[in-house]
Structure formats: C-alpha cells, structure tokens
Amino acid sequence: MRRTMITSIAKILAVFLCLMLWASLSLGQKQAPFPKDLPAYGPEKPLQTPSVKSAKLDNGLTVWLVSEAGFPKVAFSIAVRGGLAADPAKRPGISELLSKTIDQGTRTRSAKQIAQDLQAAGGDLNVNANKDHIELSTIVLSSKAGVAVRLLADVLQNATFPEAEVNLAKRNLNDSLEQREAEPSFLAARARDNVLFVNHPYRLMAPTRGSIAASSVADLREIFGQRFRPDQTIVVAVGDFQNDKMLDAIRSALGAWKNPSGMPVAATSAPSRTVEHSIFVVPRPGSVQTTLELGSFGPKRGDPDYAAAQVANAMYGGEFSSRLTSNIREDKGYTYSPYSYLDSFQMAGEIITHADVRNEVTAPTLNEIQYELNRLATTNPTDEELYTAKRYLIGSEALRLQDRGSLAGRLTTLWIDGLFPEEIGTYGKEVSNASVDDVNAAARKYFAAYRSAIVAVGEDKVIREAATGLGLKVRGLP
Fold first, then answer.
1. 8 domain residue, yes or no
2. Tens of pLDDT along 252-270?
C-alpha cells in the first residue's frame, strides 16, 4: 500500500543514518570536522516526464508503455479500479483477501504452476489492495516478457479461487491481522483513518476478523467478476522492449477480454472534511511508550496547491533536517525518528505526523508537535529551508523514478487518480517554482494544529493526563 511504502522508506532512512552515525563514532573518539568550504549544490535537474506510448484496446483496456533500452528487465504494473473503499459493508476488507488469492489458481494453472512459471521468467507476482484499486506487479527478464504477459492475462481473466487455497489464505490473513494489531503503529493508523473518515469508505484499511471468517469463495468470485474488467484496468510496462512488439503481445493476450454486462464499481464520493481537534485514545495497557499520530485533510495529487503543500511538509517533518526532527529528536531527545508525509487518494488527501515517545514525555512531545504545526502555518520559511526542501523533494522523486518498478507503480497510481504521465514533469516544475507565498498559503490551509485529530496509542492514564495538561478533550473512537 502507498502508506506502507512511505513509512517503510522513512524507517529505512532512519536506520541508515543511525548506522552511519554509529560507524563514525566507532572509528574514533573524535569526529572529523566538516570542511569549512563545502562545494555548492550542483545544478538542479528537473523531473522529466517519461516517454509514454499510450494506447486503448477496443475493449477499453488502457496501456501505457515506457521503453528503456539497456538493463534487460521489464516491470509490469496492472491496476484495477475498486479497492478497499469499494468493499461491501458486510465484507469489509475482502479486497485484501482477494489480493491474497487471485493468483492461487486459474482454469488452466494451479497456484504452484503460476508461481513456477513466473519465477522461470525471473519474477514474483505481488498483489496489493489499496483504497481505490487493486494492483498486480512483477519484474521479469526482458526475454521472458511475453511469458509474463500471458500469465498475467490468465490471472486477470481466469482466476478461480480454489476453496482449499482460499481457506489457507483466510487462516494466514487472520494470523497476519493478529500480528499487525500487536503493533502500535498499525493501531494508530487504523484509528486515525476511522477518526478522519468516520462513515466514509476510506476509513477502511484492513479487514476485520468477522469479515475474514464470513468471506467465501462465492463472495470472491462475485467481486472478481464485477471489478476485473478491461474498461476499468490499466497495464503499464517499463523496461527493455520495443513498444510495438509489447503492444502486440498485450493485445494478443488481453484483446479478447470482455466486459461483463453489469455496471462497473461506482466511484467513491468525496468525504466530509470536518475534523475534531481532540485526542482519541487507543488503550494499550502496560505500554512504556505512546504512539502519537496526528491526521488532517490535505490536497490530492493534481490539486493546484499539492506541490506547495509538499514543500511545506518537507520543511515541517518530511525530511531528516526538518523542524520537527530538529526539535523533538535533536534538541529535546523525546523520540528517535518522527516523520510526516502526505498521502493522496482519488477523492481525498491526508497529512500525517507520527512519533513514538516515552510515556513521561507524551505531553511535552505533543505540545512541541502542535507548536511546529502552528509555526509552519504562521511564519515564513527561511530561504535555506525553502531551497533545501525543494531540492530534497525533486531529488528523492528522481531517485525513486529511476527504478522501473517504482515508475510503473507511479504511473498506475496517476491513472487511478484520473491523471496523466505529464503530471510527473508538472509536479517537478511546480515544486521548483513554489514561492514563499505559495508555501505559506498551503501551510495556513492545511497544517494549523487545530485542523488535526490526534490519535494516541498507549497507557490510558498517561494519555489522559497529557490531554488535561494541554487542555484537549479526550474522545473514544467513532
């Protein structure tokens, strides 16, 4: 999922920086000082929109191809509209079960044969359920790209959901849910979406035990038959291939795929943007730390102020040199790795702040987070902050998009959100051109502390005492 990927990257960066610091300390008692005259930044390289060959088959299937000669691999990403937000009310989270079982058998292949055939092509199949879509992805050898296309086409059209495989997946998913619920970060994220989205379908980020138990093979086949249709699907390929030959292979494998007679999944409506600025407690008896997660509504990708909000967030908590990190990590030592990020869906955006802190500093940490949010919303950034944030955003995005799998995934997400490949270059230009006034306007609109709901996972007494000291109301989850 997008949020999982973002938080994972943040954690990996934090661990890497810690290891670098440890290594520097272990090599001697004194650290070598930085040179006095460091070279200036090199010239900024703008983000380039990839060269995409776009096509639409007669059955409505969208195809985006990015031919990059050289390294002999091809990344495929396939997105189908209708994810967790489209799940029936009586089967919340069934999209996740579908993502675990769609590759467990087709009319002509068993689960073992699917795995073996794809591994022989050099790849593995990854399937993820997101709020707005289900994504299938793999990276294979260029010489085996045709094999991969035919196998993916078989799964997309002919998944059978064998009962034995579904029953095994249900047990595994139930175990996975139990493991996730032992993690305070998962509890905080689940509660945050419940608080922000209340009765909107976006509140769902995982199945319930009851839904897992009640879901049947018939349910999965019904949802598969409704959602998996060519006019609601995009196939993206990035790698070493010739566009015409790849398009021919996709047309041969998927051109006869027919749309079912029923209507596609209805588009999700926009959620209410009303947020109560209170502390919502998730009790975790015996916890020695509090997990704090603040959530507010932000812009969607493609909104006019999305790039400016990203710049504001980078200064606030999105980069390691951010105000939030400098304050509650470097200066006060309240937490090891705080961070913030923007998450964008088709119909809504979120701004999220996360910090894990010792019980005794729960109140002061929350006070400082709110201080930094309000400081961002009320004061101008320095020239250095603005410049560094822009360079960080453009550089990190350029690095991500050098990876073919990441680029393929980004393109499918843009399509799901109703955007086009040109958005990549447009975003880069908007980040580079964001003025102080642009960033200040976005900060005022989205980041003021009163706009956020606060979720706290930990010892109930500790959290309530912190809320009282800060004059905040304590609420239960909706």
1. no
2. 999 999 999 888 888 899 9
